[in-house]
Design brief:
- By secondary structure, the protein is α/β, with parallel strands linked by helices.
- Helix content is 41%, strand content 19%.
- The chain is built from ten helices and ten strands.
- It has a five-stranded mixed β-sheet, with helices on both faces. A five-stranded mixed β-sheet has the order 8-7-6-9-10, with helices on both faces.
- The longest helix is centred in the last third of the chain and has 30 residues.
């Protein structure tokens, strides 16, 4: 009798420092997440109402070693067990990217392990596939985060085509800016969602910017400005908030959120029609918003499309998606040049 041969596994250490989350993860074969550690910097940036690049970079320096150590200890692996190091190279804050990139290069060189560079947004696009076998391709992917609102057609991990991008404010940026207008706090996404729960989404008829009839690009700057003028008056940027009741603010938050969700869903369905797609996946930080998830799930159910949203743990910036994407790049033969630098865009 032939003895059963154990299939060789590829263990990837992922490192993510593109913005204000310091993260490391250990993932096997692109789908088995053994650990996923994220150190948040929200408290550091809250008093500034947004991410301060210099503070973010310093925080990465201070905690990245500990985050990597915790990820490896949680996964029960040592350096000898790591087959590949994967790290975010783009896009993001250059200073933050350089911290992770330099660390990953060092570990690759010291451990004698191959290194792969991962695109942060493409990792978000493929994050709904983590843990799924087979992966949900082909599919239209909607990625909504702080800096990106994008549509992709994914036919495989090595066949990803961008269909639409943000032309100005991304959805996450709009959430943060509107939260500031309404004095709801930072980060804006969760604060807007919380306020919207007690609001009427039809209270204010905010605009839906769809650009052209066939456009798959996104624009939320006009919506943000509409909220600003609704609060303070036409052409004004202050002075109106004190006249609003708590219910008024909830109604504005709910109406704003409804406008964002409407545009995201309509654009995604437009992409589905253009590409004759049978499946939709959702990823990115704003994918944690329950209204976005539910509306897209409902639209897919109405059209009998398969729908997969990234698990909540993989919506925000995380290293599990970097390690997972890194595995697929490594499996098809990609290897990084240690001399390569970070790329902001």
């Amino acid at each position: 009798m032939w003895a059963c041969r154990r299939r060789s596994m590829t263990t990837v250490l992922g490192i993510e420092t593109s913005c204000d989350e310091t993260a490391a993860a250990v993932v096997v074969d692109g789908r088995d997440v053994r650990s996923n550690v994220v150190a948040s910097q929200v408290d550091l940036h809250r008093k500034f109402g947004g991410v301060v690049p210099e503070i973010a970079s310093r925080a990465h320096i201070e905690c990245l070693d500990g985050v990597i150590r915790e990820a490896m200890e949680t996964a029960g692996v040592g350096s000898d067990d790591i087959d590949v190091v994967a790290v975010t190279r783009q896009p993001g804050l250059v200073g933050s990217l350089l911290i992770g990139l330099t660390t990953a290069k060092t570990l690759s060189w010291v451990w004698g392990r191959p290194l792969v560079y991962v695109d942060h947004v493409l990792a978000h696009a493929c994050s709904p596939a983590i843990g799924l076998e087979p992966p949900p391709w082909p599919a239209v992917a909607l990625i909504v985060s702080g800096g990106h609102s994008s549509l992709y057609e994914i036919r495989g991990f090595d066949a990803i085509e961008r269909l639409g991008v943000t032309t100005d404010d991304a959805a996450g940026e709009a959430f943060d800016k509107v939260a500031t207008i309404l004095n709801l706090g930072y980060p804006g996404g969760p604060e807007i969602e919380r306020a919207a729960r007690s609001g009427n989404p039809k209270a204010v008829a905010f605009p839906r910017t769809l650009l052209g009839p066939d456009s798959l690009d996104f624009s939320f700057s006009g919506l943000k400005t509409a909220v600003l003028y609704h609060v303070h008056g036409p052409g004004r940027t202050q002075g109106g908030l004190e006249r609003l009741s708590e219910q008024d603010i909830a109604d504005i938050a709910a109406s704003f959120q409804a406008a964002v969700v409407d545009v995201l869903v309509r654009k995604t369905m437009r992409a589905v029609d253009q590409r004759s797609a049978d499946a939709v996946v959702l990823g990115g930080g704003v994918a944690a918003n329950k209204a976005v998830r539910q509306a897209l799930a409902d639209a897919c159910a109405e059209r009998r499309l398969t729908f997969h949203a990234a698990p909540m743990a993989y919506c925000g910036d995380n290293a599990a998606m970097i390690a997972a994407m890194g595995y697929h790049q490594y499996a098809r033969g990609e290897r990084a040049d240690l001399a390569a630098d970070a790329q902001a865009n």
